[in-house]
Amino acid sequence: MIRTGAEYREAIRDGRAVYIAGERVKDVTTHPMFKPLVDIRAQIYDMQHAPASRAVMSHQQDGETNAVGNKLPFIQADWWDKRRATDMVLEAVGGIVTRVGDETVGEMWSLFDGQDVLNEVDPQFSKNIRDHIDKVLRTDPFHVSANTDPKGDRSKPPQEQDPDMLLHVVKETDAGLIVRGAKYETAAAYADQAFTKPTIANWGNEAYSDYAVGFICDLGSPNLKFICRTGFAGRAPAEDYPLSNRFDEVDTLVIFDNVLIPWENVLFYRHTKAASFIRATLHRYSAFAFVQRNLKLADMMIGAALFNVRQTGLDKQQAVQEKLAQLAVYREGINAHLTASITLAERSPGGLMMPNQSLLYTGRVLACSQLHEMMHIARELCGGQICVTPDKAAFEAAETKPWLDKFYSVNDDWVAEDRRKLLAFARDLLNSDYAGHRLTFQLFAQSAPFAHLAAVYRNFDWDGPLDFVRKSAGLSDKVMSPTARLPGDRAVNQWFGPDETKA
Ligand SMILES: Cc1cc2nc3c(=O)[nH]c(=O)nc-3n(C[C@H](O)[C@H](O)[C@H](O)COP(=O)(O)OP(=O)(O)OC[C@H]3O[C@@H](n4cnc5c(N)ncnc54)[C@H](O)[C@@H]3O)c2cc1C
């Protein structure tokens, strides 16, 4: 089933307690700081119905029309379909939106793969995850991700400080669990549900903990409060900050002030083994859509930088061409990882098709860890004019217009208005408050860089190079011992050639 934009808007007008800049928001769908993203999310829903886009955005399953982004991946083609649908959305909206559902729903598929672990804990939990994956297909919710707690003093266990620093269960009832704490969640204030689970935690030898709880949170639940950071939209004219005003995805500290989580929404509880499993495999699927956003960001940087150097005739300089080539190498590095992760996709323990894990996670490190350098190269190529150019009002005011027309008209093809627009776009992409925020988002939104590298460590096939060196150096068999793995990590050498993955 697929919803319409209107149905989505209606669903989030549920009286939830949303605060921004110290004020309670009356209607999140019309508030100027939320409206741009609510409109884009509604547009995505409507694209699933529109004749021009529905063939890419939706698919038929058991006589129903479902969203491509929500489809469980079973074959390689499912990943090409998802990639195509995401590209269509980003092309249609003309910028980057990440936390709009397709990038987070895959976190649940990781738990689908962990049904053996859940069965050991309680078979009801594995039924719950299957039911929720089915519910996503049937109801097409806007699904987001909740991992990160305020955490407090990391040198102390939660019991030795304010226990709410990490979200935890305070009571079991017949109806479900009562939970307290808080989570940072981008887009939660205008989404339908969040997969809520522990952040990276050191459980030590504890087999059970009140903090080891994972559930689907209905974001319309009583006793939730959404305290948002101030939005970028509306702070300055849209003509001067075109990205800030259209693509700001508002982050929220979601307060759980004794919230009831019905049992059917609980995906695991008390067993630290289940919590460790989900941490180790969380981004197995969802990293694909996240990294795909970096590819689009690279395209935006290349486009802005190249237009600028063409305008000013600098693209003939070899040193400038080399810098453009560096941007292209970064872009194609991401493209290669995404493409190869589909072509060498792997069968998951639960029978799904995962993007090749080593290639996907190394691609995520490449994309995120080099982004700041690429932004700097693009900034350099755009020149200092991106941060010294006057605003649109000055280009229009009678007294200043003639001067700005004179100095910003480069030639017959590049008149002042286009040059102003390009510089404003580049400023918002590379230099503005929003630009810094997006850089930080790519650094942290799927965990911190150390966690990205930990995922690479756990999924790279170390035994291949070890075995090669063992043979080449004439070492004995005894030196080969299996690499230690965390629960839920894939077995080494468990990859299939392209032909086997098509079935
Ligand atoms: C724009 C933005 C959007 C976000 N959206 C979401 C969201 O939608 N949902 C969600 O759940 N979270 C979200 N987050 C939170 C994000 O997941 C966390 O910021 C991230 O996991 C890091 O946690 P922290 O901020 O508590 O940093 P800290 O835990 O304080 O870590 C800071 C730094 O300390 C070092 N460090 C800490 N622990 C270790 C360790 N064990 N080993 C090595 N080094 C370590 C690292 O250098 C690390 O980068 C978002 C964050 C940002 C910035």
Walk me through the structure:
With 503 residues, this protein is an alpha+beta fold. The chain has two domains: 5-281, Butyryl-CoA Dehydrogenase, subunit A, domain 2 (Beta Barrel); 286-459, Butyryl-CoA Dehydrogenase, subunit A, domain 3 (Up-down Bundle). It is built from 21 helices and 14 strands. The protein has helices at 5-12, 35-47, 54-57, 76-93, 106-113, 115-121, 123-139, 244-247, 272-281, 286-311, 318-343, 357-369, 371-382, 385-388, 392-396, 401-408, 416-430, 433-444, 449-459, 463-472, 498-501, and strands at residues 17-20, 23-24, 58-61, 64-67, 143-146, 168-172, 176-186, 193-196, 208-218, 224-228, 251-262, 266-271, 346-347, 353-354. The chain starts with a helix and ends with a helix. It binds flavin-adenine dinucleotide. Flavin-adenine dinucleotide binds at residues 99, 145-148, 151, 183-186, 251, 440-441, 444-445, 447-450.
Task: Give a quick set of tags describing it.
single chain, 503 residues, 6-stranded mixed sheet, binds flavin-adenine dinucleotide, Butyryl-CoA Dehydrogenase, subunit A, domain 3, Butyryl-CoA Dehydrogenase, subunit A, domain 2, disordered C terminus, alpha+beta
